[in-house]
């Protein structure tokens, strides 16, 4: 069997990201499982795991991984760190023609790099096989509750990134006692399931959307809203999920009924720009619009939530949105404002746990297809380009690459 050299690159993107694609323990498992694989770890002073831990696990510490066959990273690799003609795995943020990464994709093509995007690794049912979404949901829900406590001066929680790991964070939120508020959570995927872990862990009762709208509770409650709960067919008729995803323009938002009842919104639903927005600036200005804290995990700028006017940062996670003037103000500036938490790299706040989950999925779903046969074309379908050319599934990016 041919030897396969796998490299773990030092994350070079700023702001610093402390996550890793595989942990030291997982490196040890990998080396014990595959005789023909070696792991080379680029020295780094920013990872959530020490270089010495990788060395003890059997990885070879190096200053440069450009001679490895496969190079694993998390965030976009800086252009000066790209290895000519090699296979790079990372979140490239290019498949939606993100303007800020145009030169990155152009350089990858010039250098004849094979780019495999983590985001595109799916099974035959088009479900993602590897993601950080669960931890985005966990940290997003925690930050939402932390923001509510701060806004109303009810309790103080340590930021998630100041907790050692998730167990430490769970101890932190277990001391919270919320008043009888109502929390609306959108979405049904990894993100919202992660958020539910925190809400359930805080012993917040889950109720149905109908109960949420019609009943009074003397305890904090939350409801999970799926697409059908807050979108309705224009002109009447029953909701069809297939039709909604194929022709979202046939639908309009009915979220207003929940906005009249909810105190907090945790937004975890994927949004298609062709679909209706959750609510409008005009909706946010109405006196019956009750929501005053929004944890926008999706963080779509100019997307489905008009109060998310920019991403926030781990160091400065919260700002206020003034709905009457449609502008940003300092956090907790005015009772009439909506307080927004829109950190766009939430899993970075719990890097150890997020990395462990990610690496586990890599070992289970991705690595066997790298070392052996690429069953179901999992790697092939996630390959954006190789040998200087876009793959057929990503040929739509050509005009973007050409600068149009």
Automatic annotation (TrEMBL):
GO biological process annotation, one example: lysine biosynthetic process via aminoadipic acid
Pathway: Amino-acid biosynthesis; L-lysine biosynthesis via AAA pathway; L-lysine from L-alpha-aminoadipate (fungal route): step 3/3
EC number(s) from the headed UniProt entry: 1.5.1.7
First-level EC class: oxidoreductase
UniProt-recorded Gene Ontology molecular function terms: saccharopine dehydrogenase (NAD+, L-lysine-forming) activity
InterPro entries (alphabetical): AASS (IPR051168), AlaDH/PNT_N (IPR007886), AlaDH/PNT_NAD(H)-bd (IPR007698), Lys1 (IPR027281)
Origin: domain of life: Bacteria
Residues covered by the Alanine dehydrogenase/pyridine nucleotide transhydrogenase NAD(H)-binding domain: 166-342
Residues annotated as catalytic: 75, 93
Keyword annotations: Amino-acid biosynthesis, Disulfide bond, NAD, Oxidoreductase
Catalytic activity: L-saccharopine + NAD(+) + H2O = L-lysine + 2-oxoglutarate + NADH + H(+)
Subunit details: Monomer.
Protein name: Saccharopine dehydrogenase [NAD(+), L-lysine-forming]
Organism: Roseivirga seohaensis subsp. aquiponti
């Amino acid at each position: 069997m041919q030897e396969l050299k796998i490299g773990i690159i030092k994350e070079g993107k700023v702001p610093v990201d402390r996550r890793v694609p595989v942990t030291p323990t997982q490196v040890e498992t990998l080396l014990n499982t595959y005789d023909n694989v070696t792991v080379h770890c680029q020295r780094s002073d920013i990872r959530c795991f020490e270089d010495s831990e990788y060395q003890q696990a059997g990885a070879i510490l190096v200053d440069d991984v450009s001679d490895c066959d496969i190079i694993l990273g998390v965030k976009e690799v800086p252009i000066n760190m790209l290895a000519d003609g090699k296979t790079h795995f990372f979140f490239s943020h290019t498949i939606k023609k993100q303007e800020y990464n145009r030169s990155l994709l152009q350089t990858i093509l010039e250098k004849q790099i094979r780019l495999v995007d983590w985001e595109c690794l799916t099974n035959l049912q088009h479900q993602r096989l590897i993601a950080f979404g669960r931890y985005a949901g966990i940290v997003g829900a925690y930050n939402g509750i932390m923001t509510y406590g701060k806004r109303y001066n009810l309790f103080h929680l340590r930021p998630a990134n100041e907790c050692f790991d998730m167990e430490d964070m769970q101890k932190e939120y277990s001391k919270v006692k919320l008043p009888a508020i109502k929390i609306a959570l959108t979405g049904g995927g990894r993100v919202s399931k992660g958020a539910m872990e925190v809400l359930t862990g805080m012993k917040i009762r889950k109720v149905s959307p109908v109960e949420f709208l019609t009943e009074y509770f003397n305890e904090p409650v939350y409801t999970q809203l799926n697409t059908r709960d807050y979108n309705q067919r224009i002109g009447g008729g029953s909701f069809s999920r297939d039709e909604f995803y194929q022709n979202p323009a046939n639908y309009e938002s009915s979220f207003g009924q929940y906005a009249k009842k909810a105190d907090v919104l945790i937004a975890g639903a994927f949004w298609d720009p062709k679909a209706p927005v959750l609510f409008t600036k005009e909706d946010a200005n109405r006196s019956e619009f009750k929501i005053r804290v929004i944890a926008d995990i999706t963080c779509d700028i100019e997307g489905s939530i008009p109060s998310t006017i920019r991403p926030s940062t781990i160091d400065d996670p919260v700002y206020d949105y003034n709905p009457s003037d449609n502008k940003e103000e300092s956090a907790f500036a005015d009772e009439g404002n909506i307080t927004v938490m829109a950190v766009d790299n939430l899993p970075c706040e719990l890097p150890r746990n997020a990395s462990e989950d990610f690496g586990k999925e890599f070992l289970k779903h991705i690595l066997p297809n790298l070392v052996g046969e690429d069953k179901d074309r999992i790697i092939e379908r996630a390959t954006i380009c190789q040998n200087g050319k876009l793959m057929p599934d990503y040929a739509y990016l050509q005009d973007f690459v050409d600068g149009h």
